[in-house]
């Protein structure tokens, strides 16, 4: 069997701890994953994995071999790229981002890149929480933050502005809001990853921090968007996600003169070492694409 593929399967099983999960991620059957692992163990003449009915874990030998196998895969990929004189980008890029940014902004950007490079495949992993890129075998992550994870290399590609919004229905049946402190008497929608119960708002050079009551919280922005659209309360939302609903009248800005803190949109990756031309080109594409106002 192909030793290069067997090595990729071994590295993925080491990350997932599951033959079934690796089979799903690599689009192959579970028996095929088992055969590739057996090929690796026969090739190296040592047992690499402990297998039980509940989990799979590395043996001492497997732990020792893992980094060497990863380096070998990196070198094999580099040699393959050197041998490819066609100049065409190819291969699979695994990219992680939040659900809200993924479906509203990233997919159009990715589609444009793939149309220009038909031999490239992209696998998008949607999570609002920060993903361990190495453990999850992620090549790139697009994250919105005030500061990026210091263990990763971050390239700023755009600014994420936020607004305070509510549905006309909610605003019509509740007391008027003319200043930030009025929010304390309203039902708010809390985003667990950003200012869940204390909202920081700025007008000119004045900042106010308001403690709000959140009966509904979520770790994902699109869920809170739907709650706001259905009149459940007031939410802080990224402008890229709600602009169309403000224009369409389904949502209204609350305290339009007061602005939540801006965040930066980053492309994050773990290392520049052995980065494939395809990944490098995708970073450049995203940087150029989002340098223009898109929302």
From TrEMBL:
Residues 1-59 form the HTH lysR-type domain. This is LysR family transcriptional regulator. SUPFAM superfamilies: Periplasmic binding protein-like II, Winged helix' DNA-binding domain. It holds the Pfam family LysR_substrate. Belongs to the LysR transcriptional regulatory family. InterPro entries: LysR-type_TF_proteobact-type (IPR058163), LysR_HTH_N (IPR000847), LysR_subst-bd (IPR005119), WH-like_DNA-bd_sf (IPR036388), WH_DNA-bd_sf (IPR036390). GO terms for biological process: DNA-templated transcription. It comes from Vibrio fortis. CDD domains: PBP2_CrgA_like.
């Amino acid at each position: 069997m192909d030793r290069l593929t067997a090595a990729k399967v071994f590295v993925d099983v080491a990350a997932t701890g599951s033959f079934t999960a690796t089979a799903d991620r690599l689009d192959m059957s579970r028996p095929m994953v088992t055969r590739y692992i057996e090929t690796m163990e026969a090739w190296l003449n040592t047992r690499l994995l402990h297998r039980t009915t509940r989990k799979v874990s590395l043996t001492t030998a497997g732990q020792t071999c893992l980094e060497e196998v990863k380096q070998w895969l990196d070198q094999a990929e580099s040699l393959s790229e050197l041998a490819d004189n066609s100049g065409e980008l190819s291969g699979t890029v695994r990219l992680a981002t939040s659900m809200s940014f993924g479906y509203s902004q990233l997919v159009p950007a990715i589609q444009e890149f793939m149309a220009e490079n038909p031999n490239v495949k992209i696998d998008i992993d949607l999570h609002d929480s920060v993903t361990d890129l190495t453990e999850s075998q992620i090549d790139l992550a697009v994250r919105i933050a005030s500061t990026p994870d210091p263990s990763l290399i971050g390239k700023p590609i755009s600014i994420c502005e936020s607004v305070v919004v509510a549905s006309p229905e909610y605003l019509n049946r509740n007391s008027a809001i003319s200043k930030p402190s009025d929010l304390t008497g309203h039902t708010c929608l809390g985003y667990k990853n950003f200012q869940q119960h204390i909202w920081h708002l700025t007008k000119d050079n004045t900042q106010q921090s308001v403690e709000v009551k959140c009966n509904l919280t979520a770790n994902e922005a699109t869920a809170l968007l739907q709650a706001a659209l259905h009149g459940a309360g007031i939410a802080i939302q990224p402008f890229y996600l709600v602009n169309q609903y403000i224009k369409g009248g389904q949502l209204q800005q609350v305290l339009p003169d007061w602005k939540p803190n801006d965040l930066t949109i980053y492309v994050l990756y773990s290392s520049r070492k052995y980065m494939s031309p395809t990944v490098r080109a995708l970073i450049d594409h995203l940087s150029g694409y989002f340098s223009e106002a898109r929302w």
